[in-house]
Structure prediction request, 272 residues.
Amino acid sequence: MFKNILKILIIITIVLFLTYQYAIKIEPKWLTTEHVKIPIKNLPSGLKGFKIVQLSDLHYYPHTPLSLIQKAVKRVNNLKPDIIALTGDYIDREAEPILRLMPILAKLKAKYGVFAIQGNHDNSKIVKTALSETSNISLLLNQGVNLNVGQANIFLAGLTPNSSGNLSLALKNHSPNIPVVLLVHEPDLADDYAKDKRITLQLSGHTHGGQVRIPFIGALVLPYLGHKYDHGLYKIKQMWLYTTRGIGVIGPPFGPPVRFNCPPEITEITFY
Prediction:
């Protein structure tokens, strides 16, 4: 009996060790692309097939290697997006790595532009300046921009993170009947923004999908403002919300820098 119990304990230990090695060394680098098609009510014909590619939560340094971000940028460009949406958290705890990151993000290309917001980790003058001074990226801080897409128009708005987001200011120049895509770092704010019938789609990150997702249970740990809509596509009133798992990971003091059943994600969103 004792020998059988010992064998079981050894097997359990080996399985746990191998699982941890997989979660810390393999899955965090297993870059995936999610292809999401969203039906839009009364979509102008000129916007059918409109493609948005979303990147989020790079958390560059120390846990996310620059090589993974370079791979993600190359894959994003190969998708030939109409616009690219960067939804925050470019750095982890230190601001200076943004200076090494921006030359990589400067290679992003989209037909109608690359647009960015800040995440809750990006509250630094260095980060704001680096994003603002990168020629191919438009930083939206409670701001919006109208894009002419052939014979149609789409309005892209971006909010600052947490409670500092000002939707009225971001939609100040919006014209009636033009679809609005709203970039908001924290997904759970969607309950407030879905009350505004002008908003067609909200794109968010922040949660990393929980990084560890147990089958039939879901994420074990989620951040503030990321508990309700932690991963994937949701319909809230008339508004769609997509929450991406993001690219990077965070580590201590929040936990080990692992991913399990929750690989890093590039999101391709197509309207129809």
The chain has one domain: 31-271. The chain has six helices and 14 strands.
